[in-house]
Amino acid sequence: MTTEVLMFASLLSPVILGLIEVVKRLVRIPKKYIPLLSLAVGVLIGFLAAPLADLDLPLRLWAGGIAGLSATGLFEMGSKSPGMTRGRIAKK
User: Which keywords has UniProt assigned to this entry (predicted)?
Assistant: First the structure.
């Protein structure tokens, strides 16, 4: 069961990375919130991925969370990343 969760997380990670990169380029948000956004997107994709995996819902949510954190880099959550992303929307 653990192997299936990790394999599913490995498949979701590049998708989440791409979505987060799109958000970072379009929307100007503080860098310190990017890991939280990535975690939320990962859990959401894990929830919506019912047709893609035969895992139970809690396992899909865990896989999505793991994929979201690995897509951004878990180390960013603890580091201080001041500043904003270079988003084109909502510039001051």
Answer: Membrane, Transmembrane, Transmembrane helix
Sign of the torsion formed by the C-alpha atoms of 70, 13, 81 and 32: negative
What phi and psi, each to the nearest 5 degrees, are found at residue 53? -140, 145
**50-91: pLDDT as tens digits:** 888 888 999 999 999 999 988 887 545 555 556 666 666 655
Q: Whole-prediction pTM value?
A: 0.76
Task: Judge whether 78 and 28 are in contact, CB under 8 Å.
Answer: no
Q: Where do the domains of the chain lie? A: 2-78
Three-state DSSP class for 84?
A: strand
Say how many residues make up the chain: 92
Q: What percent of the chain has pLDDT over 90?
A: 30
Q: 3-state DSSP call for residue 33?
A: helix
Cα end-to-end span (Å), the chain: 48
Closest CA to 49 of 63, 69, 38, 68: 63
